[in-house]
Every structure is written in C-alpha cells, then in structure tokens.
Amino acid sequence: MSSTESALHRDSAVANREPEYINSLEVCIIGSARCRGRLRTVKSAETGCPLARRTSSGAARDTRVVVPNTRRAAAGGRANAGCAGNAIKTTKYTLLTFLPKNLFEQFHRFANLYFVFIVALNWMPSINAFGKEVAMIPVVVVLTVTAVKDAYEDYRRHLSDERINGAPCRVFRGGGGGGRYVREHWRDVRVGDVVHLSCDEVIPADVLLLRCSNARGVCYVETTNLDGESNLKRRRVARGPPDVVAAAQFIVECDTPNNQIDRFGGAVAHTDGRRVAVGNDNLLLRGCVLKNTDYVEGVVVYAGHETKAMLNNGGPRYKRSRLERHMNRDVVWCVALLLLLCVAGGAGSALWLGSHGDAELPFVPPGSEERDALARHGVQVFLTSIILYQLMIPLSLYVSMELVKLGQVYFIDRDAAMRDARTGCGVECRALNITEDLGVVEHVFCDKTGTLTENDMVFKKCTVGGAAFAQREREGEKVKGKNRDDVDPALYSTVRGITKDTLAGGSFPEKRAAADRMPPGWDPLQSGISPSRSDPDGSDRDDAWRHDVQEFFVAMAICNTVVVSKHPHRDRMDASGVVHDDDDVATTTTTTTTTTTKFESHFGFMPAIPRFIKRFKSSGKDPVVTESYRKNDDDGIAAVAADNDEAPYYEAESPDELALVQAACAYGVTLLQRTDDAVRVRLPDGSRVTFDLLHVLPFDAARRRMSVVVRAAGTRDPVLYCKGADSAVMTKLRADSRHARRVVDATMHHLDGYAREGLRTLCVARRALDPDEYAAWRPAQRAAETAVAGREGALLRAACAAETEMRLLGATGVEDRLQEGVPACISALRAARINVWLITGDKRETAVNVAYSSRVFAADMKLLHLNACTAEAAALQMRAYAEEIAESTPAPPGGYALVVDGHALALALDRGGDAGAAFVELASRCAAVLCCRVSPLQKGAVVRLVKDSLGVLTLAVGDGANDVTMIRTADVGVGIAGQEGMQAVMASDFAMPRFRHLARLLLVHGHWCHDRLARMILYFFYKNASYVFVLFLYQFHCMFSGQVMVDQIYLILYSLLFTALQPLAVGVFDRDASPELLLARPRLYASGATAYRPGSFWLNILDAVYQSVVVFYVPLAAFSPSDALGMWELGTLSTTACVCVHTAHLGVETRSWTAAHAASIAASVAVYAAVALLVSSICLTCNPPSNPYWVTMHVAARPAHWFAVTAAVVAAL
User: Fold this and answer.
1) Which of 216, 625, 734, 1160 could form a disulfide with 1065 if both were Cys (CB 3.0 to 4.6 A apart)?
2) Which of 206, 447, 901, 1047 is catalytic?
3) What are the start and end residues of every segment in region (Disordered) (predicted)?
C-alpha cells in the first residue's frame, strides 16, 4: 500500500472513530468550495507530521497548519514562517508614506481640489493674476495644518500601539527538558508559541486551549473588549486520549485567519495519525479576559492582525452633523455667488472694450487683437476673477471647524461636573464630528433598566402560596441579601424548617389534597403561619404550604446560571515565569485541591506544576458576593468546587439573578457549588443537599423564562424549576384545583401591587416530572442540543414541551432604584422642550410607575393607553385618541401621555399601511410617550420611524446590548457605562457614567457648541464675502480689467492669518450664558438652535454687501480729487478698514470676553501690522511698474487715513 493510500485509509478510520471531528471540521473547513474531492494527507519530509491537507485534485484547502515552536528546529526552522507576528499597527502612516498618503487623502476634499485648480490656473501666462509662488500659500497652509493634525492623531495611535505591544506575557522558550516559561512582550509572541495565562489576564493572541487548572478542563473568558458583552463564556480543553499530543508531537490544523468570531474549526493531529477535533469552544480570543480559572496554557494559532479581534476592527466611526450639512449647502451658494461675480467681471470687461469702438486706449497696444476678440478677453477676465475672488470659498473654514471641535471635545471630556465620584469616570466623546448636534436635539429615546435605574437589584418583596412578605426597611441602607437582620421574621422562621427530609417529600400529594380543602378565607400568616388549630386538617395544609415556601427558596438558589467560586483565583507562576513553592506563595495566592488529570498530562513539553494544597480560610460563614455581573448563554456554568467551610463568591448572569441568590442566602438557603452535572446547596440547618443537574433550559427572548431540571440525591423523580416573566409563566400553569386557582389569583393581585411600586417581578413555578415522561422527553432535548441545523427552533420546542402543567410557587419583587438626579434631569429636558420617550421591555404597570417617579410623566397628565390586538382596532383607537386631543377644551394641565405596549407598537410600525403615520401623528401631540414590552429591534424601528416621519434630530441613550440598535439608529447615540457590559458604549457617539449628566451635556455643552460653531461659520461667510465684494467694487473703477488695488500677499493672508484667530477663540471659549443659568432656565436651550437658521446665510451676505460698500466708499470719499489717493494707498486703506471692521464686528458678536478673546484680537492686529510694514519695506519690485514700497508708512503718517478708517468702522457697524 502506498503512503498516500495509507494516509487515506487512516483518514477513513479517523472519520469512523471521531464523528465529532467530522461534524465540526467538515462544516467549517471541508465544506470549502476548493475541497470537494477526497482528502489526503501530505507529510513533512523532516518530521513526518501532516503539514497540509489537500483534495484528490491536488488543490490546497483553506487550512492553516501550526507547529509548536518547541519543534521548529525539528521542522527545519521553517514552520509557521508565513504567519503574522503579534505586533499590531493601527497607525495610518509611516515616515515614508506619510506625505504621499496624507496628500492623497486630503485631495479627496472638494475645497482642496478647488484651490489646487486655482494654483494651476494662476500659472497660465495669459491669466497670471499674481505671483505663482504666492498663489500656492493658501493651499500649502491648509494642507500643512491638516497634515500636522493628522500626524498628531496618528502619533497618539502609535503610542497606544506601543502600550499594547509592550504588554507582558509568559511564553514557553526552549525545547526538550530545558525549556521554561519566560517573560516576553506581546510583540514577541509568534504563531506556534505556547503561552501561560492567569486569572484576570488579558489574552495576547488567539490561543488554542491545551491545559487548564480546572479538573474538568473548563475555563471562562469575558469578552467585553471584543464584543462589549460582559458575559462569561465557557471554553474547554480539547478532549481526546491522554497521549494524543504527548511530548508535543502534534500539529494543529485550523481555519485560515477570518473575521468570524463565532466560528472556528480544526483538529489537533498526532504524528501517528490520531486526531482530536477542536472548535470555537476551544479557542481563546485576543483581547478577552480570563476568568474563574487559576491558569490556562495554550498554543497561539493566530497572532497580530490575523486575530479575529483585529480582523473585526472597523476603525473609527464618522458622522456628519446637521450644521455641517447646512454649511455645505451654503458653500454651494458661495460657489454660485463666485461664478456670478466672475461672469459679471468678464461680461463687464468685454462690454467696456466693445463700447469704445476704434478709440485708442492707453492700456491696449495699437493693433492688438484684444479689440477683435472680445469673447476671448471676457473669458480671460472671468478666469482671472476666479483667482482674485477665491476667498469666496472659505477653504480655511474646514480646518478651523476641525480645530474648534477638538477644543470643544477637550473641554467636554474634562468637565469635572460630569465626572462620577464613585468610578472617577467622566463623559467621553467618541465621535468628534457631531458635538454641535447636542445643541439641537428634539427627541430623546431612553431605556429604563440601567439607564434611568441603577441596575443594582435589591430583593424587596415576595409572595409564596398566595401570602405576601416584605423585607424590613432600614433608613439609609438597602438589603444586599447577606444581612439577615433585613429578612421578614415570619417567612424566615418557615424557611428555617427546610431539611433534607422535607425536600425528599417530593410534591406531597396527600398534603396537597388537604390544601385543596382549605376554606377560601384561610391565611397562612394566621397563628404563626398555621391554619386554625381547631381544623383537623390544619397541620396537613400548613405542611403543604411550608413545603411550597421551602421549594420556592430552593428554586431561587438553583434556578439560575450563577458562577460559584470559593476564593479569588491565583496562580503559582509569577509574572516572570518562575514557579514558587507552596510556602513561598501561601500568603499571596490560593487554589483548590485537585488531582492531576488527563488535561494536565497531554503536553509533555510543559513543566508539570504541582497543585497548591494550602487553603484560604474565610472568616465568616455567609457568602462573599462579588459586585460584578456576568451574562451567560451557555447551558450551565461550572465553578470551582466549594468546601463546606468556605464562603463562596458569586458572579451572576444579571443583577436580577444575583439579588435572588443573595435573598436565598439571607434566608438560609445558600448556593455552594455548581458543576456541569450537579448543584450543591446548604440548607438552614447546616446540612448539604446535592441536586443532579440534568438539564439547563436557558433564557431566551421567545420564551422569556429559564428552567432547570434537577434530581435531588436519594430520589428518582426529576423536578423542573422555572422562573420568568408573569406573562410567560402564568400561561403554562396547571390550575385544576380550587387552591391552585386561589394561589394564582392572589399572586396576580400581589404582582399588580409590586408593579405599581415599580418593582421588577418574576414568577417561580415547579413541575414534578414522571420518570417515564422524562425518559420520553430527554431524547428530544438531547437531539436539540446536538443539532447542527435548526438548533434554536429545536431547543425552543423541547423547552416548551417540558415547561407545561407547572404549579405556581410564588413570585418575587426586586427593586431597581432610580439613579441619583434622574427626575431632575428629565424635568430639565422636558422644560427645554425636548420630547422624552421611555422605551423598555418591562411590563406596563412597572414602566408607568417608573415613568411617574422619573418625571417622564407628570402627575397632571392624562394617560392614553394603546393596547389593541389587531391593526383595525389599533387604527380605531388612535383615531379616537386623536379626536379626543383635538376636541378637548380645556386640555389637561400637563397634556397627554401615550402608553403603548409591544404588540400595538408592532402594528403601528407596519410601514405598508397608514398605521405608522397615524401613530407618529398621535405621539407628536402627546407630551410624553412610553413604549413597554418592546424588543431590541422595535426600539430601533421606533427611532427610525420618528426620525424619518418628523424630520427631527434624535438622541438615544441606553446601557445594554439590547439598546445598540436604538443607539446606532439615532442621530446621536449615548451609552451609559453601567452594569450590562460595554456594548452600548462601544456603539455610541458619547459615553457617560450616569444618566443625570445628560442634562449638562445637552443644556450646557450642547447649547454652547452649536451656538459657538454656528456663529463662527456665519462669520467666515460674512468676512470672506465682505472682502471679496470690496475687491469687486474696485472693478467699476478699473474698467473690469481684473486689476486689484491690494498687494497679493494681503489677498492671500487675509483669511489665513489676519482674521483666523478671532473666530477660533469664539468657537472654543465663547459663552452666551453661564452653566448655572442654562441649567436653571432650560428654555434657553432652544435659543442656541436659532443661531443658524435657513435665512441666516443670506442675512450675513446682505450685511457683507453693506459693509463692503461702506469700507470701500467711505475712505474714497474722505479724500478730495486733489489729494491724489493712489491705487496702493487705497488698497492699504481698504484692507486696514476691513481688518478693523471685521474684528470689531466679531467683538460685538462676542458674548463673554476672556483672555483668549483679547489675545486673539491683539495677535491678529499685530500680525497684520507687522506684515504690512514688512511688505512695504521690502517690495521694491513686487508688482512692476507700480509697487507698494513704503505705502504703509505713508498711510500711517497721515491723520486723514486714520479718520477714514474710524469713519468706516463706525458707519459699518
């Protein structure tokens, strides 16, 4: 048999023995279009290892082969040679490419191309308006300033790259028995390196997990830096026979680098042909943080820019503000005005020449063809005028706007009033181009949980078996779940009765029958939570109710995905790769006692690390609860085993789960340990009970509930515990008895009360599964868990099949308190005439209560409830409400507030009919809108509908991943850095630590930014147009010859230097009102939006026309014909008057004078005077035959000139 046939035979055997490999690798890799034929293995000539996989046709498959670098010498040193290094480079330029690449990018801007065209036009001999070199100054200055700014930004990116590339990690160096882990920088890591990572360490590259401190080969990673989610995601060591990769005699075959974060396939192949399949749950991605594990070790498969994180790096986001769009529209009008002036100049020149017939003209040589080519002469003057009037297009405005926005962002980021004292974090501007949009927001869409509220849940109330209980209130404190002074004493005494024997009683069928005979008025709280002693069945009913209480708290403790650990995870290896003895690390590090397993012996090239056997002793019996929340979408979370005497640490998938586990602990039911197949609980009497964890049915948006199927030790009947929203649980209950119906009715009554108090509610239910019924259901669940196609639908169907015929145990009420300052913030926004919409997934009663407490709704508002079930009913309801609002006289003092549920909103969002328009019309007539039971996609759809229908500027604010769609859809997105990860922040334009800072961000900084920038833009249009009009007026006195009366250096530097600093000072430092006044009188917010109205541009152009007439003719009229006012003298006089008038005009527009304003004016005037004196001193032959030599000194020496300038300034203003 040939070697190739042998390889094929071996592959066939592997396929029969390893179906898991075929499923994962074939889907991810073998399904490539380039590998349709049969696979064969090509071995390395040096090592005999399979280095690549090829099809029978010889085509290479999209597969990367990674050889551990400890074996590179055996592979001839050529292994992994074509793979990228781990150093990253996010900079755009290098020293060699900066100039050409930056110029290429800048010439994509129309204004820059326009001025390059002006420079080229000026080099034409027949059009040469002024010096060729001088004509290049504007574009050179603008390109230089922009290049310096781009270089500075790129340098900052370079520094960030250096910090990341210089981060330390531990890499295995050396081969054979002499290798060890050494400290390296991230930049030095290569594909094939084996790295050692400790808990809370950031993963430096995409690493295939080879070994883990956990006995089951399980670790967890937090992906906040990658996708914004703070959920813990489980990763496993690749399973297989212990000797599959012994002594590093293996290679890794995997996908080529790609940006699919959730897809990875490959295999670990041994030299003897045995293979172990690896998938996405074996890969640790760069940028994630290792959690809940002492240490892990793995081999790098992707590094640097080939990692999935870097391949998904989309770069900075860019938005264009509304003010910039309006400015671009007005720039088009400037182009139209420029063309109009140029056409007038060309036509005027041609008409003037034609009107003289054959008369001799001193400036036209005899016999010149210019008389006979009037059209050509007119075209030449037209092109010359384009050069002369180039200031009409405000090239420097674009650079000035970027500088001003950088200054505005600098002061926003450093506003101490918007810094959270608890976290030390302030507002972060992530989009630098839309600061001015903060000043014209008309609609604010905000989430509730975590945005308006703390997202720090506190267990407040519960109802069990129809009886309601409440936690004790203590002034200035809140219950965190581990303080038993806060618990309800009556309920606590009942829970204390939980023992192994009572839990082993199953569903108490005989006592449940007795409970069904309870009289309608029976209250379990009577006589110390006991029915009347005179009732012969009272003890049975009391025991049945007590059993419900016990099971209720057991369900609170185990029906979750809480991660349980015994202590902070530590590693015996220090940062330099040195492994310390037990005594050396006893005071600084702890781990759990486990034995060496197959996961620790797979890789012989790694030094064996003996387990640390000393234990960390907790000082208390109550659980230590961490304040970090973790979401998880796995089917259960494994944790480090907890010892009986040690206090566990909890990391919950959400604040709600953490609050419930804390409450169960407070009542004595303590979750001690969770593994893949078991849950361990400590009961109030100190005994421990272990439940076999058969299945975890995780929460999903369709079911809106989660369940666990467990079996208590010593029993054979499985039990399903379920918790979820009331609407999702109540429809799955079995209410076939009088008592069950009475419990459901009482619970619903209590839930309504909890909702009116603003509490978040969850229902808890159970179902005892018959063994035969469970045996029939289990194959469907297993098949759904392993399904490749249609997995989500199969899991949904299987879960729904089990979550039926349940018995209601009770419900919980958890308080999510409003953040400090939320009511005052929303009141200020509403006073500023900003419409506030509250969009939440909570039930209506809870959302309405929060709307009132947060002042989204006022007490004197009339609520309109839109809760129709059909499109026709929704249309009728909206029409009736619209008529009611139109006909109501008088209207309610606070106006109307609209409350919409998710189903009615789905009908209103139907763009195929008129429902959307009717909904927007109705909502626009209401003072506030509340949308409840809304999905994440509906949040984004609501924002888009309002934005497109009303044409308003929208702002969306949220804190979780479910708010990303809404944040991205709005014109301005604001992310709250809260408890639900950083995905909302990553998708936002502005990030802030607390919602209350939104008022200052909008009412103060937004108002300032828009007002300053709008006035600066209008000032640029005004001053440039005014100076151009002065030049144009001179054409009436020079027969439209294209001659100007000012020196070319004045024309070039006027906008770039003489009048550039003053508007920058206004754009960054000017304040039309103090922050205290703007916050005290929110109605002033709207005044900032009027700074740039549709007619503002033309008003400033008219002002420019008037002032240009004054500036030109007042000095001209100040001298009699006998004074012999020369052309350069008139030009110097006019330019001086323009500088003074434009500076004085901006001074009048300045609202608050600062040192920066005064310094900018003084510097501008000083620069103009210095340039004027310098030009007059050295220009002997600048513009022959007439030159401006000593003209400035001559003008400054004559009092009449100063009188003319003063008169022009007074008349112009």
Assistant:
1) 1160
2) 447
3) 503-543
